[in-house]
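Bumping with the actual sequence this time:
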Amino acid sequence: MNSVNNLASPLEAKKQYLLSCVSEILQARGMEKPEGYLADNQADLIFRRGAEMMLVEMKTPSLYREPDFRAAIGDAILRYQHDALRLQHPRRDLLLAFYIQRMSRKSIEVLRQYAAEYLPELNWIILSQDGSAQLRLENQEESIRVHPFEDGSLQLHDPSRGSLFSPKNQWLFKLLLLPGLDSKYWGGPAIAPSSVNALAAASGVSQPVVSSFLGNGERAGFIKRSANGFRIQHHRELLEDWGYALKHGRSKGIGARSLYGDEPEASILKKLKSSNDASSPPSVVIGGHLACHLMGLGRSSVRSARLYAAGPIAEVLRAMDLVVDESESAPLRVVSLPASEVVFRGFVRAEGVPVADILQCYFDVRFSYARGLEQSEYLYERILKPHFERIP
């Protein structure tokens, strides 16, 4: 089996891995090598065995979330049933192939239930990162193993195409993703730019850089051009790859705490209010768990914060009476960004202080060991997912 391309993005690599494993599994069971893609995107792969045809539809949600998982199964089954007469093939079966990070017994149960109720002849495979898999093929179910997915070899920064999640590109993604959100959660433009020129003008990024960003986004499968402009697709996978880039990227930040010891949070917020005139751009924007609470979206007692600095970190430390704290439990982290527009042009005000937009807060808490996953999922399910589903 061919190894995953180590220059692919995480989403691309997962798709390649799933495609490779499914191809090997079906060929080992007597089906012919895939012959290509259907022109109408009815399937990701086609396999044949005599007059029989197997359509394969691949899903890479990575993390198992039951509502999304059920929706993906139901959507695939409905499309398969609706197109059955149109394609008019004498024998046409469907195989749903899922890649998830960890094998979930619940996911297997859900697939069994859906198949029994809506499409008893459904074939499916759930493949996890460690190579364990559950397969149902031609009414026979079995546990199998394949080679594991080696994501440690992935490189997001392919020098041949640039980084899809560079700071400027993150700002461009936000301009396509976040317009239409409540102004409590996004302070940038209310309408998404619909052309290269409009996106360049709204972002302050040069047209060549915008064009390169759009091309790379299309090749990665996240951006689709339409008559109305640009449409972002595969939102969950986009956020996973974006988060991966942030986690493994280089952001200039240091841990910090109050010079006066256990200073009350209210005192720190008061300093921020006094140092930021509402009529002028802020010098500091709050992110992290504290920002979630200030927006009324906190899910725990954790109130650690990120302080995004528009200027040198030393100036922020001095103005806020902070000192460096290199411990793992530092209550604050002061961060300086190479391209500050990604935070400072979309911030909002909550309780009188500048707060990062909701998507930035999602990434801030995503990898926090202090209930960060719980908080980020709450932001996604409560605010981001409904917004993405409303985007035409």
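The tokens above came from a reply further down the thread. Residues 66-87 form the longest helix (22 residues).
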